[in-house]
Design brief:
The complex is a heterodimer of chains A (121) and B (109). By secondary structure, chain A is an all-beta fold. Chain A contains no helices and 11 strands. In chain A, strands 2, 4, 5, 6, 9, 10 and 11 form a 7-stranded mixed sheet that branches. In chain A, strands 1-3-8-7 form a 4-stranded antiparallel sheet, with no helix packed on it. Chain B is globular and about 40 Å long. The N and C termini of chain B lie far apart (35 Å). Classes of the chains: A mainly beta (121), B mainly beta (109).
């Protein structure tokens, strides 16, 4: 079945970087855009950016420009999200989510299970 | 950035009653609007896309309407499993700059 499996929880110190992975299975990896969304404790959803797994092109939310990098490895059907210069406000659950239609941006029909990232000294 | 505003923040409804949730965009997003349901400890679940099309496996009691800047999610007869937080999301921009609303919590009255 179609699924996204994310890497495990992380604890990082302020100023460090974190890299979260999201492995896709059950569909053609390069046919669907992938997004990253985060959710701080008790807060709403926040879109971080998108990657096209086919060519690797990306677009990031203004808030994360310069701090986030999204990459992909087509040999393992995995996308990555790296966030640098971490601060306490980055403590959140990070989700990868797949677009529901091929080669277009619509709604997200498949979500990873989420990865908790805690930033604490 | 397109700002999505949801109201009310909390909606108290009795099981079996109708729930109406609103979402407003700061500028037109055409019909490029989705609704998600999220329960505690779970990832969001897609309910509606294209403002009014139910996603696969979503019960008919969920319906979406609207276009432009005003959107509504209606749950016709609330079941116990429907008590959750609901988010709207627009995907109208190019280059993509998607945004979510702040959410509406549907709680048991």
């Amino acid at each position: 079945q179609v699924q996204l499996v994310q890497s495990g929880a992380e604890v990082k110190k302020p100023g460090a970087s974190v890299k979260v992975s999201c492995k896709a299975s059950g569909y053609t990896f390069t046919s669907y855009y992938m997004h990253w969304v985060r959710q701080a404790p008790g807060q709403g959803l926040e879109w971080m950016g998108i990657i096209n797994p086919s060519g690797g092109s990306t677009s990031y939310a203004q808030k994360f420009q310069g701090r986030v990098t999204m990459t992909r490895d087509t040999s393992t059907s995995t996308v990555y999200m790296e966030l640098s210069s971490l601060r306490s406000e980055d403590t959140a659950v990070y989700y990868c989510a797949r677009d529901r239609e091929m080669a277009t941006i619509t709604a997200f029909d498949i979500w990873g299970q989420g990865t908790m990232v805690t930033v604490s000294s | 950035e397109i700002v999505m505003t949801q109201s009310p923040a909390t909606l108290s409804v009795s099981p079996g009653e109708r729930a109406t949730l609103s979402c407003r965009a700061s500028q037109s997003v055409s019909s490029n609007l989705a609704w998600y349901q999220q329960k505690p400890g779970q990832a969001p679940r897609l309910l509606i896309y294209g403002a009014s099309t139910r996603a696969t496996g979503i019960p008919a009691r969920f319906s979406g309407s609207g276009s432009g800047t005003e959107f509504t999610l209606t749950i016709s007869s609330l079941q116990s499993e429907d008590f959750a937080v609901y988010y709207c999301q627009q995907y109208n921009n190019w280059p993509p700059k998607l945004t979510f609303g702040g959410g509406t919590k549907v709680e048991i009255k």
